[in-house]
Design a protein that fits this description.
By secondary structure, the chain is of the alpha/beta class. It is about 50% helix and about 15% strand.
């Protein structure tokens, strides 16, 4: 492709691995790195048709790259791979673009942006929504914080794995938008769980109830995709309760800094803690229903 870029992807988990695949398939020159070598080998086994250079460190991954993309675990992980002694910013060239898709605090996103500015590197905090399915299909939504020029520079690559790219504001704004997203999801899933248990206890035909209420104001993505699976006690759909609790914790920390009260978020976070205590931390977020007893249900 005439506009091919040298792109490095750091972090080959469920989301990052799919992103790297889409970038390679789009014809860009791909470099990959993961701190756990086993994930590199797993990715290469599944994507054997793609030619990807394996870097020895984040700094090595950034050497000669036009764009570096990270998708790691948390603030500490991100700080290590970007700002550490063998981090991305040790070697990313002036004018290069750094894109982070990790869900982290707005504080670390702003800190990295300041470091990038001093190095004359474009920087974007771009957490994602769309779940594992969206990553696999290349239909993610990206909430981008940073300068417009940075986002436009990265857009041709980001379009390989996303269907919606929204510039929501300055550095850190992508992360705070993602927090708002998670607050909404948590509230919807919690109320959906109660509705499912209520309908079950009433001995209603669950398919008919869904048909009746999903076409009106109660409709949501969660209802369309989780009503039937919650009713069937199926909870293996990618985004784990452990990760949702991390995200809600970030939102509550940011809320405290803003002086904003988030009572529903705090309550639902505790509900998720209850499910963790039952051993359900790695289950999908819809497993919040497991803390509600199945009254009168065979």
């Amino acid at each position: 492709m005439s506009d091919a870029k040298n792109v490095s992807v750091i972090g080959l988990g469920v989301m990052g691995g799919a992103i790297a695949r889409h970038i390679g398939e789009a014809g860009h020159t791909l470099t990959i790195f993961n701190r756990s070598p086993s994930r590199i080998e797993s990715w290469r086994a599944v994507n054997s048709a793609l030619d990807a250079r394996v870097a020895t460190s984040p700094a090595d991954a950034a050497e000669g790259a036009d764009i570096v993309i990270t998708c790691v675990g948390n603030d500490d992980d991100l700080a290590d791979v970007v700002l550490g002694p063998r981090g991305v910013f040790r070697s990313l060239r002036k004018g290069g673009v750094f894109v982070d898709h990790t869900t982290v605090s707005a504080r670390i996103a702003r800190q990295i942006s300041v470091e990038a500015r001093d190095l004359q590197v474009h920087c974007i905090d771009a957490p994602m929504t769309g779940s594992q399915i969206g990553a696999e299909k290349g239909t993610l939504t990206l909430m981008c914080g940073g300068r417009k020029s940075a986002i436009e520079a990265a857009r041709p690559v980001m379009e390989a794995y996303s269907q919606r790219i929204v510039h929501v504001g300055k550095a850190g704004a992508g992360q705070t938008a993602k927090m708002a997203n998670q607050i909404c999801i948590a509230g919807i899933v919690a109320s959906l769980a109660e509705a499912v248990r209520f309908a079950q206890a009433s001995h209603l035909d669950m398919d008919r109830v869904y048909e009746a209420i999903s076409g009106g104001a109660a409709q949501s993505w969660q209802m369309d995709n989780r009503w039937k699976t919650m009713n069937a006690d199926e909870f293996d759909f990618g985004f784990a309760i452990d990760w949702m609790r991390k995200d809600l914790g970030l939102a509550m920390d940011e809320g405290r800094g803003l002086g904003v009260s988030l009572p529903m978020t705090a309550l639902i976070n505790q509900f998720y803690a209850d499910v963790q205590a039952l051993g359900g931390g790695r289950l999908d977020t819809s497993a919040i229903i497991k803390r509600l007893p199945r009254k009168g249900i065979k």
